[in-house]
Amino acid sequence: MLETPALFQPLALRGVTLKNRIVVSPMCQYSALDGQINDWHRGHHTTLARGGVGLVIVEATAVEERGRITHGDTGLWNDDQVAGMAEIAAIIARHGATPGIQIGHAGRKASAQRPWEGNVALGQSDADRGDAPWQTVAPTAEPFMEGWHCPDELSDTEIVALVDAFAAAAARAHKAGFRMLEIHGAHGYLIHSFLSPISNRRNDRWGGDREGRMAFALAVTEAVRGQWPDDLPLFFRVSSVDHVEGGWQIEDTIALAVVLHGLGVDAIDCSSGGVAGMVTAARVKRDQGFQVAYAEAVKRETPLASMAVGLILDPGHANAIVAEGRADLVALGRELLRNPFWPLQAAEALDFDPDYGQWPDPYGWWLDRRTKSGFNPL
Ligand SMILES: Cc1cc2nc3c(=O)[nH]c(=O)nc-3n(C[C@H](O)[C@H](O)[C@H](O)COP(=O)(O)O)c2cc1C
Questions:
Q1: What pTM value is reported for the model?
Q2: Could you tell me the distance, in angstroms and rounded to a whole number, from the CA of residue 280 to the centre of ligand 1?
Q3: What is the pLDDT of residues 205-223, one digit of tens each?
C-alpha cells in the first residue's frame, strides 16, 4: 500500500469531504456578459476539475450589479443567473472535485477595466466602446487610488440592504448546487474596505474602532450562514495584513477569525493586501509561499482550519505546508492556469500515483505505457 502524502489526504468539513488538500483559488475570468456564464467558463472549469484538485472555488461572483469589478464579472444577483452557475457546479462535480464559489462586492474598486484592457477605472474611452462606468459605493467617500472613481458613502439603510444581498446570493449559490461557499473579505473590496482603518473613516456603528469596522463583515457572515445549510462549509477570505503602515494587522485577522468561528465559519483563506494597491497584478518581487505564515498564524491561534495561498508552485513545498501543520489546505491560482494538471503531476512527483491510475482513463492508459517504455517526464 502506498502511503498517502499529507497533500492527498482527504479533509472533512461539516458534511463535505474534500478528496485532497489542493484548491483552485478563486479567479475572475472577466469573461461574463450581464453576470452570466458562457462557454469560456464551462471549458475553464472542466479543465481545472479534470486536473485532480479537491475543491474548485469559482471566481468572485457579484452579489449586486454595481458590486462587479468589471463588466465581465459573473453574478448571482438575480434568479436568472442560477441556471448557468448550476451548470458550472455540475461540471466541477462531474469531473471529481467539490464545487465551491466565492461571493463578493467590489465596493470602491468596482467599475474597472478588464485587466488586459488597462486595469484601471473605466473612463470615457471605455464608455465609447460600450463599457460605461458606474457609480461605486464604499464605507467612506474616498477613491481607492488617484484616478479612480470617488465612491458614494453608503448610508445605514444601504448597508443593511447589502447584507441582505449577500444572503440572497448565498441562497442562490446553494440552489445552483455548490457545496462550499466563500465570502470575499479581502483585496480592498467592499468587506475589506470596512475592516481596514485605511479605507473606513466612519464614526457610526459600521466604523470607528476595530469592533465597529468588523460589524459589516460579521453581519454579512451571520446573514449568509443563515442561508447556507448547516451541513455545508463556509470559508472567509481575508487580507491577513494590509502591508500599509497603520493598516489591518495579523492580530486583527486573528481577532476577526475567532468571532467568525462563533458565527459558523469553518476556514479562513489567508491572502493579503489590496486596500491601497493591486494584489495579484503587483509587480513587486515575492517569494514562493509568501503568505503561508498568515495561514500558519490563523491555524495556531484559532480553532479554525486555514488555507494558504500565493506562489505555491512546488509539490514538495505544498505537501510540507500541510504535513507540517502550517495550513489545512493549499490554494493555487496562476500555476493552475499554466498547468491545470499540476495536482496529478504532484501525485506522481510525490510517488503517490506511479502508474497514472488517478488520471482520466483516456489519458492515463497512454501515459503509463509511455513511462514503462522508458520515458521519464519528471
Ligand atoms: C486571473 C486571476 C483572477 C483572480 N480573481 C480572484 C477572485 O475572483 N477572488 C479572489 O479572492 N482572488 C482572486 N485572485 C487572486 C488568487 O485567488 C490568488 O490569491 C492569487 O493569484 C495568488 O495565488 P497564485 O500565486 O497561486 O496565483 C485572482 C488571481 C488571478 C491570477
A1: 0.98
A2: 6
A3: 999 999 999 999 999 999 9
Helix axes 342-349, 315-323, angle to 10 degrees: 80
| CA atoms of 311 and 181, how far apart (whole Å) | 23
Q: Pick from 349, 352, 356: which is nearest to 370 by CA?
A: 356
* Residues with catalytic roles: 189
Q: How far is CA 295 from CA 262, 264, 273, in A?
A: 19, 18, 14
280, 312, 329: which to mutate for ligand 1, most atoms within 8 A of CB? Answer: 280
Question: For residue 150, which amino acid is it?
Answer: C
Q: Where are the domains positioned within the chain?
A: 21-99+106-340, 350-378
Burial letters for 245-282: b for 16+ Cβ neighbours within 10 Å, e otherwise?
eebbebebbbbbbeebbebbbbbbbbbbbbbeebbeee
How many whole angstroms from 27 Cα to the centroid of ligand 1? 5
Report the relative pairing of strands 234-239 and 22-24 from DSSP bridges: unpaired
Residue keyed to cell 496562476 = 334
How are beta strands 234-239 and 267-271 bridged, if at all? parallel
Mind listing the pLDDT tens digit for each residue in 316-349?
999 999 999 999 999 999 999 999 999 999 999 9
Q: Report which ligand 1 atom has the smallest distance to the Cα of 182.
A: 11
Take atom 22 of ligand 1 and give the residue whose Cα is closest: 310
CA-atom Rg of the chain in angstroms: 20
State the CATH architecture for 21-99+106-340.
Alpha-Beta Barrel (3.20)
What pLDDT shows up at residue 285? 81
CA 321/CA 236 separation, integer angstroms:
20
DSSP E strands in 249-348: the ranges are 267-271, 305-309, 329-332
Cα–Cα distance measured from residue 185 to residue 299, given in angstroms and rounded to the nearest whole number? 18
Which positions ≥6 away from 16 have C-beta within 8 Å?
98, 179, 180, 231, 232, 233
Contact in structure between 85 and 61 (CB atoms under 8 Å)? yes
Shortest-distance Cα residue to atom 11 of ligand 1: 26
Q: Rounded to whole angstroms, what are the CA distances from 92 to 56, 74, 112, 245?
A: 7, 17, 29, 41
